[in-house]
Amino acid sequence: MKAPEELRSHRWFGGDELRTFSHRARSRQLGYNPEEHLGKPVIGILNTWSDINPCHMHLRERAEQVKRGVWQAGGFPLEFPVATLSETYQKPTPMLYRNLLAMETEEILRSYPIDGAVLMGGCDKTTPALLMGAASAGLPAIFVPAGPMLRGHWRNEVLGSGTDMWKYWDDKRAGLIGDAEMSELERGLARSPGHCMTMGTASTMTSAAEVLGMTLPGAASIPAVDSAHHRMAAASGARIVGMVWEDLTITQVLDKRAYSDAITTVLALGGSTNAVIHLIAMAGRSGIPVSLADFDALARRVPVLANIRPGGDWLMEDFYYAGGLPGLLSRLTDLLHTERPTVTGRTLGENLETAAVHDDDVIRPRDNPVAAEGGVAVLHGNLAPSGAVIKHIAAEPRLLTHTGPAVVFEDYPDLKKRIDDPSITADSVLVLRGSGPLGGPGMPEYGMLPIPAHLLEQGVRDMVRISDARMSGTSYGACVLHVAPESHVGGPLALVRDGDLITLDVPSRTLRLDVSDEELARRRASWVAPPPRFERGYGALYSEHITQADEGCDFDFLARAGTNPEPDAR
C-alpha cells in the first residue's frame, strides 16, 4: 500500500517550496479546505458529457455519483470535461477525432496532479479513445460505461436504434411506408439517455472494456437509466481510490491476455467490425502487437452466443436481464484467460464466480449458437492486400460467395447522385472509394451503401458492397469494409473500373478483382494521387500521421514505443 507522501499529487501539494505553496493557495481559491484533499488520492473524472451528445446526456449526473463514491472512499474528485465525440452529429465522422480525444486524455492525466482516473464514455469512439490515452499515461484507471438506451417502440414493434432506422428507411424508399409512419418512428426510435441498444460499436466497445478488466463486473450492459447504473457509478468512484492505494495501474490490467480475451468476446457477441480497428489501436498503446490475423484465427473457433441485433433478435436491455456480459463470459471460460487481473483487484475468473445466464435464447449455450464461427471474417486478395473485413453473420448467406460486375463510385457525393441508376442489377457489386482514413477523411461510416430504389421495390434487401470506409455497428448486409490500403493512397480499390468482375468468397476468406496483373499494372501507371484534403490545422496533422485501417488508424507518433517524461511539478 502507498503512503500519502508517495501519491503522485503530493508532488504538487506536499513539501515546503514556492510552487507547492502556490498550489495550496490556489486550491483555497477554489474553495477547498486542506483536510479535503491533502494526503488523499486525487481522482480525475474525465467526462465526455455535452449538450449535443444524446448517448451521454446523463453523464453529468453520473459524474456526481462517481464523486460520491470517491468521497466515501477517502479520495478527492476533480471533474475534467473532455471532447464529447457525438456519433450522431459530428461530421464527417468522430473517427477523425478519436486520436484527438486520446491525446487529450493522456495529456490531462500526465500534466495535472492526478493519482487515478475515472473514464466516462460509451458513444462509439469515446471508449477506445479514453482507454488509448489512459494506457499511454499508465496511471490507475477505471472505465464507467454510459450504458445502452431503453428499447425503442413503434406501434406493436420493438425497435433497435440504427438497425431499424436502416430497415424502415429502405421501406420508405421502396414505397412501403410514408411520411406519417416515419414521423412516428422518429419519435420512438431513441427514447432515453444512453448509447445504441443494439450490438453496435458502442455496446461492442463497452463490452470490450469490461472483458479487458477495466470496468466493474456487469457494468457494460446496465441500461443507462436503470438505478443499477447509478450504483455502478458510485462503486466505480470508490474502487478507483482503492486502486491508487494498491498501485494497481492500467498497465498491469491491459496485458496480452486481456486483448486476446477482448477479441474472443467481440466475436462471441457478433460485435461491430469497428472493434477490429479500435482493439488494434488500443493494444498498440499497451505495446502489444495485435493484427487482423489474430481476429481471423480466433473467429474460426469462437461461436457467436449473443442473439442481439443486428445479427440476432434481441436488444441490450434483454441482454442485461439475461445475465449480461458476465453471463456470456461464463459460457466461454475455456477460451479465456481467467487468471489475469482486473480493476476489482480480483481475477477475471473470480469476478465470474456468481455469473449466470437467465435466458438461453438471448445468450445461447455453446451447443446452440447463433453462428458456429465468430461474427467477423478477415479477407485478403488482390483487391485487399493488407486485408478487409465483413460481418458475415449480418449478411444474406447467398451473397457470401458471389461474383458480379463492379459499379464504381468515386466518393460519397457521387454515390448519392448515381445510386438509383436503373442499369444497376441485384448481381452488381457496388464499390465506393475515397472513403478511407485519408480519403474520407476519417473513414466515415459509409460502408453500408444504399440499395438502389428500383431494386428495393423488387424486394432486394442485400447486395455485395465494397469500400475502404467503415459502417455503423448497427448496420447489416454483405458489406466488405476497411479495404486496405485505401484508394486515396493508391490501393487496388483505386484501380477498379465499371464492369470489372469482383469475386467475394467468405468461406475461403478471399476478395479478388478478376483483372490480370498486367492490366492492373497499366492502370496503376496512369493513376494520379488526389491532392491533400487539409492545408493546415488538426486535419493536416491527421493527414501526415494517420496509419491505415489494418494498423488501427492511430497516429504513428502515438503508436510507437517510448515514454513521455513526468512533468516537473515544482
From TrEMBL:
One of its GO terms (molecular function) is metal ion binding. One of its GO terms (biological process) is branched-chain amino acid biosynthetic process. Residues 361-553 form the Dihydroxy-acid/6-phosphogluconate dehydratase C-terminal domain. Its EC number is 4.2.1.9. The keyword Iron-sulfur applies. It is an enzyme of class 4 (lyase). Keywords: 2Fe-2S, Amino-acid biosynthesis, Branched-chain amino acid biosynthesis, Iron, Iron-sulfur, Lyase, Metal-binding. Residues 40-351 form the Dihydroxy-acid/6-phosphogluconate dehydratase N-terminal domain. InterPro entries: Dihydro-acid_dehy_C, DiOHA_6PGluconate_deHydtase_CS, ILV_EDD_C, ILV_EDD_N, IlvD/EDD_N, Sugar_Degrad_Dehydratases. The keyword Lipid metabolism does not apply. PANTHER family: DIHYDROXY-ACID DEHYDRATASE, HYPOTHETICAL DIHYDROXYACID DEHYDRATASE (EUROFUNG)-RELATED. Belongs to the IlvD/Edd family. This is L-arabinonate dehydratase. It comes from Amycolatopsis mongoliensis. The lineage of its organism: Bacteria, Bacillati, Actinomycetota, Actinomycetes, Pseudonocardiales.
